[in-house]
Amino acid sequence: MTDRITVLDFGSQYSHLICRRIRDLSVYAELVPYDITAEELARHDPKGIILSGGPASVSDRDAPIPADAVFESGLPVLGICYGHQLIVHRYGGRVKRANREYGSSTLTVDGGGAGLLGGIGGSVRAWMSHGDEAEQIPRNFEVIGHTENSKAAAIASRDGPVYGIQFHPEVAHTEKGSRILENFVLNVCKAKQDWTMSKFVEETVGRISNIEGDVLCGVSGGVDSTVAAVLIHRAIGERLKCVFVDNGLLREGEPREITDMFRDNFGVNFEAVDAAQEFLGKLGGVADPEAKRKIVGEEFVRVFSDFARSRGPFRWLAQGTLYPDVIESGVSKGPASVIKSHHNVGGLPEWLDLEVLEPLRDLYKDEVREVARILGVPKSIYMRHPFPGPGLAVRIMGEVTPEKLGIARTAGRIVEDELLQAGLYSDVWQAYAAVGDDRAVGVVGDERMYGNIVMIRVVSSIDAMTADWTRLPHDVLERMSNRITNEIDNVTWVSYAISSKPPATIEPQ
Ligand code: XMP
User: Where residue 242 sits, what CATH number does that domain have?
Assistant: First the structure.
């Protein structure tokens, strides 16, 4: 079995990052709710436990406290921020409210760092974000690091492998933070570095090859559904059927690329359903953004269900769900749960009676990209920007008309092309062109023309929760603008969206 580190989540915004950093060491790390029971924890059988940070204070009456088993198991424990204060509290020290400390401090290592802080040098920059601090450390603990404001910023027990650190080793602002996690995971916990994507592929294919019945997988051309499909195809071949619904709202060339990749490249049992006329017909006359989303969603369910009924029966519905979504929905079961038997989600009718197969439910996005690479998925697919389900319908302000659809599609391709040419495509989160009904005057030849305005939007983001407008070089913007007005009829103006999220959103609708 793969060795694992279990991270108890006390609600810090950085909890996922702890797992990410540990997985970078090729050790499997998982995030579980802080109140995991002793039995459940024993079932996970971790090599070590990390207590994450969190917004609470240990002196709150309803402070989140983990099961005693966490401390009584004899397993190595590392508390970070709130987790550090929990350790101080639990072993009889005192935590006091202090002035909120937020930002970089200099951590000085004391007494060699007791293994945890080994190899990071005498002092490093450390990222703090806390309101409480250890006023008195427990008996039989020693201080292994301090900052100007926090005299017990890192502590270690003399009785066993229990450590607390006030700062966040998982964030990039902490110098040598990864080394601290490495010291804990490899040296203290002695976890094996056996979490690799090639092993993941091998084991997942092995597990899926044991399932019975046929699998239906909707593919969109996005990396998640593509990787899920290719992985399942490796395991069960012809028993997987992929369907791609062309809703007429995709990026330029996408339907062709997807069909070529699945059919010719991977030899998958694949069918494309051209439903563009149905989708565009239903969208006729509709200007409200939420109404457009609803129509696209409902139409997809209708087309997909019709397909499932006519080609079935299927036993399974495959989905490209990733680890952060699984954690958010609170149903994580760890790496053994690739095959999850609960009834399907996503608005599909009950009568389809499908069970859900989610081969990527333990992976982060960059791990999925690595799997894609191993499986031979083209880079143009696995590095492509995310694209919203309702497609260009949300990038067209007002009614979706064939004319505006053509403009958004061609202009979007030009934006992507120019970013690729400039070597900037992979540096940004999303990049597209939107169009609405506003017009502006231009001069074409000798004629004044009242043409469309195209809005270019390029944003940088880590998770789409917040986003910053990208400061593209002016010459790149100029080339995009020139090409859009030259190559697309009826476009006279090009604007660049310089609103960040918040208050704006990434998509204009
Ligand atoms: P916003 O516009 O909310 O977008 O800042 C955040 C991320 O979500 C994508 N997005 C959608 N994805 N259906 C989707 O599948 C939608 O209705 C939808 N709206 C926005 C958007 O592209 C960005 O990555």
Answer: 3.40.50.620
